[in-house]
Amino acid sequence: xxxxxxxxxxxxxxxxxxxxxxxxxxxxxxxxxxxxxxxxxxxxxxxxxxxxxxxxxxxxxxxxxxxxxxxxxxxxxxxxxxxxxxxxxxxxxxxxxxxxxxxxxxxxxxxxxxxxxxxxxxxxxxx
Length: 127
Description:
The protein is 44% helix and 20% strand.
């Protein structure tokens, strides 16, 4: 796994997680690990300090909005790029996600090329 960038995907839908993991790990440039809810996802981000966080906004426990707010409020992980990956496509949800601290917004179902491109861009910015 050395040399690969770490991506944490906080997603409660196993199919969405599996697809994103396959897309990103196929390149050999990423290791993708996941959490199924906001609380365990936030703990994983704090513990593993990933290069990129992919974040569903509609999660059990605490919402994705709260997860990104807590990430931004924690100095050790505050600069971690967070990409909202969600089926919530209303302008209000997009604005709420961006205002909360998400760096990008990717709509589900996501285009595999767009997902990879967005992650590549923010991963290059990080570290």
